[in-house]
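User: F-box domain-containing protein, Crepidotus variabilis:
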Amino acid sequence: MLSKKPPSPHRRPSLDSEAMAGLSSLPYDLLLNISTYLDLRDVHTLHLTCRALYDASTTRTVYRKLANDLLRRCRALPLKGFQRLSDLTTEQLVRSVNKATHYETAWRFRAPRPIRQTSHNNSGINPHSNYMDVTPGGVLAGRMSAEESKWYKVVSAPPDEEVDWLSPITSSYTLCATKSGKVVCWDVQTDSCLAEWNPGEHWELWKCRVEFEERTVFFTMAKVLAGSYDDERVMEFVLMRLTFSDGPSGESSLQPPEFSHVTNFRTTGVVMNVFLLDPSERLLSAFIWVSAHNTIGLYALPDWDQKTYVFIDTGIECVMSSNWSCILYQQHIVIHCEESEAAYQHFYPISLLQQYTSTLADEHSSPAISCRLPPARTLKKKFVFPLFADFTDSEEEPDLDLDSHPPPPTPASMGPGTPAQLLPSVNGTIPIINGDGQPIAGPSTGSVADNAGSSSSSSSSSSSSSSSTSSSSSSSSLVIPAPSQPDNPNPYPFPPWYPESAHFVRQWWPSLPNVPRVSCTVVLLAAHDQHTHRTRFVLAQHYFRVPLDRRVWDNEAESAPPHPPRSSPSSSPSSSMSSSSSAGTIPITTNGMTNGTSTIANGKHPAHETASNNHEPPSIEDVQDDALMHLWYVSTPFEVVRVFDGPEEDDDGGVAERPRPLVAVDFGHAVWIEYIDGEADGEEDEDDSATPAPEPSIPAIPVATGSNADIFAESDVEGMDVGEMSEIKRHLHVETDLEADATPSSPEPDPKRLRFVTFPPFAEEYEALVPVYQSRKERAKAVAEAQLPPGATLEPPMMRYTHHRSNGGLPPGVVHTLATPPELQLGDVETINIDQSQGAVILSDKNGKIWILCYE
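Assistant: Predicted structure for F-box domain-containing protein:
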């Protein structure tokens, strides 16, 4: 019998070639559809196969999709100047996507490294960083050439001026406010002043926002006209515009930018913060502390070209431990408030606020509160705290040049703060046209009275949420099921941990219509040791969106009646609030909630059964919203360097402002300067503590009296605001034992270092639900453990990390030490900024130098 010959091995390549030829011969639209399932690493792999697939995978459409993926993960593109995506050539787009992905992926596993030292080309372009570009033939170009092309750049601050605030405006300019009141635009490519606004008197910069489409910067300056830290205080604000004429190439225009005046307005009371909500609609708002009632006043200019304003007392309790921001959402002004245990969002429709518009008699008149007006709707959602335990990660470090799909996010935490009774009763009141009223129950210490025992939602179930509305009908909103596991305790409760500073940041330019509107909150928590007189800090972070609970929001939007008409002038505030509850308060504290989830409308629980009673599974929106409430920490305590913005005592003999921490935050990262511990020999990059540091005992902060009350006006970088925005001035002060640590306990020569951490990335599809696994079996197990809602699938690109682990959270942040120039004295630094899109840290020192450190 003749045996059959085995097939010749030489024929197999021809079969593979046929298969490859079949793939490469597919229509382009089909290849394009396949590419939507690929990340950058997959695309780079296709580049190595054949010419046809290389050509198909290097098209503008493919890289536009990859750029969109980066932006949906809220990672920035390193564009030059005011460039937009449409301004880029295909080659520039490919280079930007590759670089942004490299930043994103590499910094998950290692510290940023100084860029490679390369000479500039004839056009003054540095291939590694836009910040290092110079104008050919200029003084700076000659100086940098003589310095052998270092990885950093040193430019000048305004001469003979002290820098009060500084921030980069793209990679080409810095905007600097001086302590004499000037605002200066500085060209970092020529090291020269381009434009200056000098009002001739002392003004302080309060807010800055960049509108990239218009190539315009809006900023507000303020000064105190009269009064102390009470309701009699009168401040004047000026809103200015700085307009650039740069073209689509990203190169600086020969025509310098121009300052122009927009409007002036006055406020009455202690201003906590100002928000440029929408310059295109000329909409501005501010939070004002109503000291007579210890509530938040909402001041708004519906159209800053007009002389009309809205000034209401919201009735929301002003709790010192809260961190506040203001956001525009679907024609609602949203007061976003974060306490140590939960987040709140209070909604004011603009159409409702317009019913309370007032007009100033003349330009020298001061505004007055028109009435007490509760929010039309309020949402609440509790934070989910991690369990600190030993974390192990079996993932090996990938090819950093190819891997582009980073871990999805786990939100991080809010810090506790100061109790409500910290706010004193102060003489003097803002005139209230419609009389007096009782405060609305906002976030309060009553909800976190027992911090050690208080709890939030489980990491594996929907977190607690609630909603209230000022309508007179019952709500029929669906409710997320109660958690089935015990809640994790807050690892950093108050006391002893209190919020030293807070930062609210939105994703960086450019923004596309389908990019999620997500914000990032970062809080620096502090605890003071009464024995050593040292203050230790930890960093907490999380993401959030508006609304906090989309299902509750959508259901209430369908069932809620229109907002009530404006009450007559003779009506008292309490009567106009009667629709909220019989007691005139909005019940949003945990005292009015069950251990699980409760929706409250008009002070009553809904009549319908909860979703948990109906065994209704959570929707995809529920899962995503709950994921954002998970908290993340840099949990190894450190001692941050702090600086004073003014003299140790005010001119009137009062107590000076509290020192400002040298911390900067962008959407995905944070940097700070810290003292090096005596026992920590310098370069310990791992944040490997398994449990939080022992909490030093701290007594309850004593109640301040008179004008020494402290209003924390945290840094709020809403919308497209610039960078870290330096701390909004803490105009009031609490005189406490914490003042013993106002200056470092160690002398100035104490060694310091520049530190860096990367936050867990955000991913829109399932927001940190499931990790990437090497086998289908592991992936199927992850899907089962993640408890995805019916119909949900793991659509590519697959998520690479998860907070859904047995210990209940992502590992604490890994902190790295950044290299610094030998000439830079960190003890002289006065301001710090970070630009994640360019991989740059910008520092200014007391010697009139601005240091731009570029990393890769």
